Every structure is written in C-alpha cells, then in structure tokens.
Amino acid sequence: MEGLTNIKTIKNLLEKFGFSFSKQLGQNFLINPSVCPEMAELSGCKGIGVIEIGPGFGVLTNELCKVAKKVVSIELDERLKPVLEYTLCEQNNVEIIFGDAMKIDLKALIAEKFPDMPVVICANLPYYITSPILMKLLESELPINSITVMVQKEAATRLTAKCGTRSCGAVTAAVSFYSKAEKLFDVSRGSFMPSPNVDSSVIKLDLTKREEISVNNKKFMFKIIRAGFNQRRKTLTNSINSGLSIEKEKIANALLEIGLKTTARAEELDLKQFAKLSDILEKNNG
Ligand code: SAM
Fold it and tell me: What does the pLDDT look like over 169-180, one tens digit per residue?
C-alpha cells in the first residue's frame, strides 16, 4: 500500500482498525516520505534478503519489499496483524513473524528463511531496546552483511564514536569490534507520528569491513570493557577491581605493561589496548 507516510492515511488506519500507539513499545511511526526509500536503498538489500525489526504499519517494510528479494519482518505487537495484512497485501515477498526480536533465535531464523541468499538487517528500532538488540545482533555473530538502523541521535553519536574518545561506551566497543560503523543521515523528530522528544539518525554497521582485533578470550575482554564503562569516571584500576574482583596491583601492572598510566580510564583505551589488557589480565589472573 502506498501513502503510508500520509497523516490522513495513518489516521484512517487508526480508525479502521481501532489501533492506538503504544509508548511502551516505542511506536513512533515514520511520516517523512523520503526516509524509508533512502534507508531501503542504503541498507544494501537490493536483490537479497532483509530482516526488519518492528514493521509498525509497514511503511519501511513496503519499501524493503520493492528493493529486496525477500523480507522477513518481526513484530511484537499482535494488534498489528490485521493492519499489516491490509497494508502489505500487494507484496508477495514478505513474511511477518509475531514475536519478541530479543527472544527469537535469529541464527535459526536465517538458516530457515534465507538458506540460499545473503542477508542484511534494516529497521527503525524501538528505542527502548536499541542497545540490547544491537548487542544481541552483534554478539550472536549472525551470517549477515550489515545492520542499517534508525536510532536516537545521541545513541548514533555514541555508537559511531571511535574507541579511545570521550563519546565511547561499552556498546561502542562492541560495535567497533564487530563492524565498521558510519552515520548515514539525520532524521528530525517531526518526521514521526507521534513525534518523540528527540531527533534521530540512521546508522549503518558494516560487518564485512570490520578491523581484525586479535584477543585470546573475547568474552573476558568484554567483561573488562563493561566493568570499565560501568564506572567510567573511576580509573580502570578501581573499576575493574570492583567489577571483576581482580587485584588492583595486577591491573596497574598490566596497564603499565601496555604503556598506559595506572590512572587511565576506560575512555582512553582503543580496542587493541583493551585486547592487550584482557590478554595480560587473563594470563596473570588464571
Ligand atoms: N517501522 C515502523 C516505522 O518506521 O514507522 C515502526 C517503527 S516503531 C519505532 C518500532 C516498532 O517496533 C513498533 O511497531 C513496535 O511495536 C515494534 N517493537 C517494539 N518492541 C519490539 C520487540 N521486542 N520485537 C519486535 N518488535 C518490537
């Protein structure tokens, strides 16, 4: 169905299906007609498979259907079932799965639905799960080429920041470990209905262009990163000590061994330094 960014069309759908937006589920639907075609094109889904999270009324889904070979879209809100049947009735390359994107086994889903084609992810994410869903997508090491998502502008700055700078956080480190992140474009708060209190940005995480970082124990490195950023104002000596119960002296010595001060904070380290710190601490703490 065309015209899904038209306010009158949306109001008609709200009335026809007796639907009301759920703030809790992050339901801010796009009403800016240029955003979805651009997202679909830049996601790189042309002629291949795409997974969408949270189709809402299907505005981005429709654009993905025009470009991709096959679209699988995951929606939590079952009230949207009749609406999506109506708005997507002209599309024959889409399947909607009702469930929680945080709980679905995406590896199994990809193997079942896309056995014979490359896959990307493209979504206007519900903001309340931005970080956990991105962590899930990255840490499950899915066979996907890229993740193109709309997130809050502030989150976009953090997610695309460089490690070793003030804007870096624990999720930034995971994003840089698994992908090359870039901001594609900004989207104003007026582009949504209902309008949220913040602006948004579309970012792309390219998993095919990641920088190889060698580390003995990835899980342990991310524990260190999380401990460091959980108490980012503290020195790493203190934050890792309190988060992981490793002796302060061992942490301080490890920092000196990689050429850092014992007073270094998490935001001062790039990923290679975190990897080295992890290798030393794992060896000395075993
Ligand atoms: N794609 C639509 C658009 O751009 O207008 C809607 C985007 S809206 C920001 C987020 C969508 O994600 C809503 O449809 C919401 O119901 C859905 N959603 C929220 N939590 C979800 C979850 N855990 N799993 C799957 N979908 C979810």
Answer: 999 999 999 999
